[in-house]
Amino acid sequence: MTAAVARPTPARPTATHCPYCALQCGMDLTPAAAGGAPVTSAPVASAAVPVTVSPRDFPTNRGGLCQKGWTSASVLRAPDRVTTPLLRGVDGALAPATWDTALDLIATRVAAIQAEHGPGGVAVFGGGGLTNEKAYTLGKFARTVLRTPHIDYNGRFCMASAAAAGNRAFGLDRGMPFPVTDLAGADVVVLLGSNVAETMPPFVQHLARARAAGGLVVVDPRRSATARLVDDPQGGAPRAGRGGVHLQPVPGTDLVVLLALLHVVLAEGLADRDYLAARTSGFDDVARSVVAWWPERAEAVCGVPADELRRVARLLAAASPSRGGRGAYLLTGRGVEQSTQGTATVTAAINLALALGLPGRAGSGYGCLTGQGNGQGGREHGQKADQLPGYRRIDDPAARAHVAAVWGVDPATLPGPGRPAVALLASLGTDGGPRALFVHGSNLVVSAPNADRVRERLGALDLLVVCDTVPSETALLADVVLPVTQWAEEEGTMTNLEGRVIRRRRAVDAPGHVRSELWILAELARRLGSPVDFPDDPAVVFDELARASAGGPADYSGLSHARLDADEAAGGPGLFWPCPATGPARELSGPGPLERAPGPDNSRARELSGPRAGIGAPGPDNWRGQHPGTPRVFLERFATPDGRARAVVVDHVGPSDDVRPDAPVYLVTGRVLQHYQSGAQTHRVPELERLVPEPYAELHPHLGQRVGVPDGGRVRLTSARGDVVATARWTDAVRPDTVFMPFHWGGPGSVNRVTTDAVDPVSAMPEFKVCAVSVAPAESPEPLPAAAPTDDDSAVPTDDDSAVPTQEVPV
Amino acid sequence: MTLPPLRVPQRVIVVGLGMVGARLADELARRDTDGALDVTVLGAEPYEPYNRVLLSDVVAGRTDVAAIVMPLPGGERVAVRREVAAVAVDRTAREVLADDGTRHPYDHLVIATGAVARVPEVPGLAAVPGQGTGSDGALPAGVHALRTLDDAREIVAATVNAPRAVVVGGGVLGVEVATGLARRGLQVALVHPGRSLMERQLDDDAAGVLRASLRDAGVSVHLGAPLAEVLVVGGRAVGVRVGGEGDGETGRASAGEVIGAGLVVLACGTVPATALARRAGLAVDRGVVVGPDLASVSDPRVYAVGDCAQPPEGSRGLVAEGWDQARRLAERLVTLAAAPPAPVPVRRGPSEHLRLPHDGERPTMAVRLGTLLTSRAPSDRGVDTRGTDVVKVKAGTLSVVSMGRSGAGRVAVPGERALRLVDPAAGRYVEAVVADGVLVGATCVGDARVAADLTAAYTRRVPVPVDPAFLLLTAVMPAAETTSSPERMPDDATVCRCNGVTKHDIAACVADGATSTEDVARATRATTGCGSCTEAVCGLVEWLGAAGRETPTPVTAR
């Protein structure tokens, strides 16, 4: 592999965003040769990087970056970066090839497979990290070139339950229907199953006021870094009115906590009756349904003392607008969503928010904390099995007609809904299932549940094509690996966790023969004889995406790269969808069919709108009079046919894989600050890898003693699906009935070999977050299982000293 | 394609729209996905079903009386007849006769008539002929049982004009009512014939702690004080006279003592409502005698569930037991009605649970959808069979929990260990009983956190610590040293989480000449994430600068 030669770049910093999570922190990239920005020196020497990173003042991060962001430039020069197409040869090894060879081979094989097995013989698996343009093009490629119904993406693993619940309740799924900066005005913020202090650290800034008011409530079975924020932020002994409350339920029972909180709100007469009457439907049934969840019963199921439940319910109610509070927010994360009752749990959170009159009111609300960088945009543009661009349903004839017209195809040729991710993966290589798979922006042998079975299914395929930047665990199984551009090497847009559409910009050229997926898909379409036009200029693709989304729930038709650039250059307020091509914003229009909700919504909205977050602030001249975007949706009405939010009755069922005598301990999974998802990027950053070099499992000392696993010893967790080996860390941050393990590793330390692929019946989201395991000492050193002989060798950079932690000897 | 043979749905009549009858109807509707059952519920009361468990919360003012109404069972699938009381059963014709003259033929009859409050037979409480016991119509003004919504409403109304109350009976309900009335500001006396409170659940030490806690809550407790008479003047109660030996400890409530009160609440237990079953010629002992399958021993087509039933394992009068019976009976009736008849599923003991995998198999999607998509109404899924014997007193901040093999009446078994923490001065008592590495019983008074942990450990049978004494305390260590004290902070303590910067890193940076937070930020990136640590870094830089130290020797190897 030859080192890439960057083309001459202007010394001006490029304003873009971090490659990792949905907070999409603003950062400037300065070409390394041009000298550093003020805060640039890396504390740890790392490989030469083509750009230096400096944080930028942007509403989500306000000048902050976490360690992943600071070190993100290292990913651009990962030592094992894939820089040419790779083909698996007769010897079974991947070897470099030219683009023509690789693309011709793929086209020939795809054509042959489809000739034998029909269009459904080929499947596509996308990712929530792809730009809007790529996600859109991928869906279009699947539906118009491959004409396969089988496309889904890894967002099914993270966003599907919140999306399903949001669509059902509000008629629209925009993760946060308000700017993240609004949180700073609230008295109470409840985080349900979200560990923002590790997953999106700069977000913690927005919690400062709630913490100072004693109003941060964290619901997590583990005393995570986020749960520790409820301790007095100034340190010292807990004082009244500082920090907040941590509720530590038994894994899999978050829903019970929510049902009990709603019970207390209703039992104590704390609900916002006017709001319920004016803005919701179906609430009476919900009210009756929670009568069965009095706090003492809830305690027996969820392990949270009844009085703590009462205290939190009162805290929330006191912050609600109808009781004179300054506002409250309920936010959900993967901890409660990745569950067979994830949709129900989010629905319960929404029901509670409705009872308190929070959604659709400036300064209060419900939101879901989207995880992946483009987890919001990735679920809007047509890479979901049942979806067309603009968040349209693929089984809606009008949606099909609209999108087919934009694509220049007959609507009848568009396939129908495909299978959601887990079912899709399970069908690979089976009778009647797909024989070929394209993977984009996903490392699914590490990130999918029941990962050993996924590996087995991939092995049964006739053709596996993986587009990636590095030889990920999944890429190493491929027949063809195609090297693609990454964040700082490409132009495009992302939609962050607020629904704000932002620009990703190119700061450096990609190394070697790396190409963009837009170009690859266009080339494949041509080779497969498709008459459909596939532009590879991101700005042109965006314009087409905007047209395709026009009139859909996620309407981008008033946006373009040029408008986004101009807004940013002018210091504008940012642009949030929906942003239709014409017409005034809903918020600026007079009262709609429904009167405005009671309460001081309008004045509150004005109060919240600082100069940077102002609604309808005049943008650049070209777009004056255009729709200004929608920072806060639902202020007047919800996107349901009658404009009311739907309250839906849900009830607790419990985990699909509950503890039992031969698996008596709960396993919960999560992330650490230094790594991101499957670790394909962060394991290649020495500074991060040095701090968290290996898989570990957190055990309570009581459990460690019981099963004979000392602190620092090797522990094996075994479920009905598989086992995983890790280093034990004793901590009382986990309940004695629970072990915690991060999911950032492949190979023997890959916890998703243990997690269950049982899915939520509404969203088809798998139950990553809880399953039953037995816990036992593991012999050390751990021999590699035969099934995965090469994993660790390839997943971890081979050159560094981080594999063996250095022992510092006290002098 | 041939159509499946037409089937006539089997008719199920449920007598009683209480918490268990309603739950049964709902369980039937949810499980019977192909219309094999035709379910009708007859309810004597005019009200929609309500949560009887919460009546003591209504009395305590913790719950709005409007907020205890439960959903009508089964949606459209269940015919609910309110204000229709079953008066007779013709078991030969298989018909129920109701007081409105209607007849209700059945294939399966379920009696879920519940229980009525027991009214002691003492002067002042003579039952009026023709009235059932426990109906307030038969009691003097100011005297109430607490069994129905009307009882709760009347007690709440009475608290307005009665500054003093007597609660008769020191069981779970008596304790709840006494603390509830005290919470409303009444002067409350709790009179109890036994020598200790909650004697079905608590041993003497635990009861002693409870008693002291009640006293702190403003309730005066009179033990060994059976109710001798309710004093009635002009048809209205003015107090009670207690008999018995009196309380040796305090000498109060000695024989014949009179306690004045305008409100007397009877919490003397319940009597199963078995009149209908008795008239129908079914075997009745204390309750309707049923077998393990909940069928009457006299008639396999008649079942009894809830407080009116007397199953072989006995009954504690807890709603969780009744709900579990409802679940089990619903499963059975749906199985019986299924065509072709399927074998009754093999019971695997008390861990039987629809969605708990047996022998490693996973529940099928059909089962999961069946239980999830129809979950319009409360489900028992959270209440595993094992949890049905957890008794938790609802008394506000006073925490009292008892479960399994613990407390009063526990007979020691070889191999079982019972550990206790008795701390009466702090109002705390904990007992944990362990066998075969799991918790088999526990009592906890005065420590809500430990109580919640014990309940979770008991209901799920998770492994207990090698030394079960750890069960007696919360499993969380005291909070770690915070970042507010630079001096005591360990060298390897992380100061800036977002960027993984330790105290050692900052010290090294200061030793290299950094004099400000900005210098440290430039060199280490500390404070450049969420900014929460800015104060701590600032404090460290000041302290390190003032101390004028060289790079400290590492305290801990990393």
UniProtKB/TrEMBL annotation, chain A:
Native organism: Isoptericola luteus
SMART domains found in the cross-reference section: Molybdop_Fe4S4
UniProt region (Disordered), positions on chain: 582-627, 777-811
Biased amino acid composition, Acidic residues: 790-802
PANTHER family per UniProt: NADH-QUINONE OXIDOREDUCTASE SUBUNIT G, RESPIRATORY NITRATE REDUCTASE
Residue span, 4Fe-4S Mo/W bis-MGD-type domain: 11-80
InterPro entries found in the cross-reference section: Asp_de-COase-like_dom_sf (IPR009010), MoPterin_dinucl-bd_dom (IPR006657), Mopterin_OxRdtase (IPR006656), Mopterin_OxRdtase_4Fe-4S_dom (IPR006963), Prok_molybdopt-oxidoreductase (IPR050123)
UniProt keyword list: 4Fe-4S, Iron, Iron-sulfur, Metal-binding
Record Pfam families: Molybdop_Fe4S4, Molybdopterin, Molydop_binding
Listed CDD domains: MopB_CT_Fdh-Nap-like
Name of the protein: Molybdopterin oxidoreductase family protein
Lineage, broadest ranks: Bacteria, Bacillati, Actinomycetota, Actinomycetes, Micrococcales
Automatic annotation (TrEMBL), chain B:
Cofactor(s) it depends on: siroheme; [4Fe-4S] cluster
Pathway per the UniProt entry: Nitrogen metabolism; nitrate reduction (assimilation)
One Pfam family linked to the record: Fer2_BFD
PANTHER family linked: NITRITE REDUCTASE (NADH) LARGE SUBUNIT (PTHR43809:SF1)
FAD-binding PCMH-type domain residues: 136-329
Keyword Metal-binding part of the UniProt annotation: yes
Name this polypeptide is given: FAD-dependent oxidoreductase
Keyword Iron recorded: yes
Organism whose genome encodes this protein: Isoptericola luteus
